[in-house]
Design a protein that fits this description.
The complex is a heterodimer of chains A (269) and B (262). Chain A has eleven helices and ten strands. Chain A has helices at 45-52, 78-84, 96-99, 106-118, 122-135, 141-146, 154-166, 184-201, 212-218, 236-241, 246-253; strands at 7-16, 19-29, 34-38, 60-68, 71-72, 89-92, 172-176, 204-208, 221-226, 229-235. In chain A, the strands form two sheets. Chain A has a six-stranded mixed sheet with strand order 6-7-8-3-9-10, with helices on both faces. In chain A, strands 2-1-4-5 form a four-stranded antiparallel sheet, covered by helices on one side. In chain A, α4 crosses α5 (122-135). Chain A is globular, with a radius of gyration of 19 Å. By secondary structure, chain B is of the alpha/beta class. Chain B has one domain (5-245): P-loop containing nucleotide triphosphate hydrolases (Rossmann fold). Helices cover 31% and strands 26% of the residues of chain B. Chain B is built from nine helices and ten strands. In chain B, α6 packs parallel to α7 (204-210). Chain B is globular and about 50 Å long. The chains are: A alpha/beta (269), B alpha/beta (262). At the A-B interface, α8, α9 and α10 of A face α6, α7 and α9 of B.
């Protein structure tokens, strides 16, 4: 199955109202790996992710190609893209309190697209939803299905949002700042979860974040973007330890911890 | 030099109809000394924002005392605040919500300057002080980026000539590449005019960068307090150790911090 190869973006450009947002992006996000997309806001990293999902900004002109499973996603009709999105191409956003519907129960939000994409009946969809909640380690999944988003903490909500994303067994997961809104201890858990899902399910994860520390912890390869261009692309260690491009060097040097690191003390539970 | 904020054994409770009351701040005592930069850290729900509101008189204390340069801080009423308490200013998380969208930036800074005429620099100087071109004063808040807006909010707080500045997650809504920059700016601006700074954030690495002293809160209590580097290199409380251990490092090694659930 060629879907297992992940996605390959070549020469992707995007123009919006006469402005060039993406200026020839080339990158590969292989299956079973976390490919990090770094850069400041306005560098085009989120637009790249949204374009992969077939959701470029309204009125934009896109050229180049995004290969997935032997087809170029850019040639698909809106209808074909709708069939893929939520099924094989999934997305996790920064703020789960905004990405989840406040007035629909978790069970409702978790089964809606399962039934649509996988053509399951209510009971089957519910069973799959339970399975997924266990997989993303939400405590008491059966009760959780009946609850509403406001009844969960931010970390639990993000786990549920990840659950919704993986419910239809996608092969590509675009995660846009998935841990930015979370506290550090919760962030660590969500990073672990995403990494495990990537390894266990062979997902091609496109991790979009400005946080180089999160990037360093999770990504296999790092793509650094600036002004809609890829300025550096390489293995995690090389990009962070010996950045080649001056911009990447600036980013690494701008880190608050770019000083003697904190001593790891004992007694951590 | 003024600008001393003292929390003395304060408790804040929130009553919720039909549900048990929550003790958001539980017998907390600490002091921000004149000219000092104190970082207040902790996870969401630990009560750090409640402390900020308490210092401004936005929530009443259920017990204990808060005083600013010797003046007790009382909850806001319909009357004018004690003039002394106006020398304590706040910078909020979302500058777009805290700035008036219908007034030009320079006019908003002038409003703030009128609170303590003669104490603060002219508007042009205030804008330059936060790294903005004074000519931009004729613009409206929506014409600025998020980072610029927060700079304006800082300039506005400084325009009152405050003795103490409180930042309640002032960098949380900014881009990461700007966070450290704006935090450092806040420290520099405060210190340049002998203003003390209470910087509240859940981002430990930024607090480490700017604070002289750190106060760590957990579930409404202060669990650790000390000079920043000391807390960082030799955390005493188990909770602080856990927090620090959860921070990922940009070392390129691909290590996801291992944190046992609380």
């Amino acid at each position: 199955m060629s879907a297992l190869d992940g996605i390959r973006i070549s020469g992707l450009t995007l123009d919006l109202r006469g402005q060039r947002i993406l200026d020839g992006v080339d990158l590969v996000a292989p299956a079973g790996q976390v490919t990090g997309l770094a850069g400041e806001s306005g560098s085009g990293k989120t637009v790249t992710g949204m374009t992969v999902l077939g959701l470029p900004p309204a009125g934009s002109v896109v050229t180049g190609s995004i290969e997935y499973g032997g087809t170029d996603l850019l040639t698909l009709s809106a209808r074909q893209h709708n069939a893929l999105r939520g099924d094989q191409l999934a997305m996790v956003f920064q703020d789960p309190t905004a990405s989840l519907h406040p007035m629909i129960s978790v069970g409702g939000q978790l089964t809606d697209h399962i039934r649509h994409h996988l053509h399951l009946n209510r009971a089957q969809a519910r069973a799959r939803a339970l399975e997924v909640l266990e997989q993303v380690r939400v405590p008491e999944p059966a009760q959780a299905l009946r609850k509403y988003p406001h009844e969960f903490s931010g970390g639990q909500l993000q786990r549920i949002a990840i659950g919704i994303a993986i419910a239809c067994r996608p092969s590509v997961l675009v995660a846009d700042e998935p841990t930015t809104a979370l506290d550090v201890t919760v962030q660590a858990g969500v990073m672990r979860l995403l990494r495990d899902l990537c390894d266990d399910l062979g997902l091609a994860v496109l991790l979009i974040t400005h946080d180089l520390a999160v990037m360093s912890a999770m990504a296999d390869t790092i793509v650094v973007m600036r002004h809609g261009r890829v300025v550096e692309h390489g293995p995690r260690y090389d990009v962070i330890r010996s950045p080649q491009h001056p911009y990447t060097r600036d980013l690494v040097e701008a880190l608050p911890e770019h000083r003697p690191g904190p001593t790891r003390t004992g007694g951590q539970s | 030099m003024a600008g001393e904020l003292v929390f003395d054994d304060v408790t804040v409770r929130y009553g919720r109809p039909g549900r048990p009351t929550v003790t958001a701040v539980d017998r907390v005592s600490f002091t921000v000394r004149p000219g000092e930069v104190v970082g207040l850290v902790g996870e969401s729900g630990c009560g750090k924002s409640t402390l900020a509101k308490l210092a401004c008189g936005l929530v009443p204390a259920a017990g204990g005392r808060v005083s600013f340069d010797g003046t007790p801080v009382t909850p806001h009423g319909l009357r004018r605040r004690a003039p002394r308490l106006l020398r304590l200013q706040m910078v909020f998380q979302n500058p777009y919500a805290s700035l008036n969208p219908r007034r030009r930036v320079a006019a908003q800074l002038e409003d703030a300057r009128a609170i303590h005429p003669g104490t603060a620099a002219p508007v042009a100087e205030l804008l330059a002080g936060v790294g903005l071109d004074p000519a931009l004063g004729t613009r409206y808040p929506h014409q600025f980026s998020g980072g610029q807006r927060q700079r304006i909010a800082i300039a506005r707080a400084m325009a009152t000539g405050p003795d103490l500045l409180i930042g309640d997650e002032p960098i949380a809504s900014l881009d990461a590449s700007l966070q450290a920059q704006v935090a450092t700016l806040m420290r520099d601006v405060a210190l340049a005019s002998d203003t003390s700074l209470l910087f509240i954030s859940h981002d430990l690495s930024v607090v480490r960068l700017i604070a002289d002293r750190v106060v760590v809160m957990q579930a409404g209590r202060v669990v650790e307090e000390g000079p920043t580097e000391q807390v960082w290199t030799a955390p005493q409380a188990t909770y602080t150790q856990r927090l620090l251990a959860a921070i990922p490092h940009a070392d390129g090694l691909g290590v996801i911090p291992d944190v046992a659930p609380a």
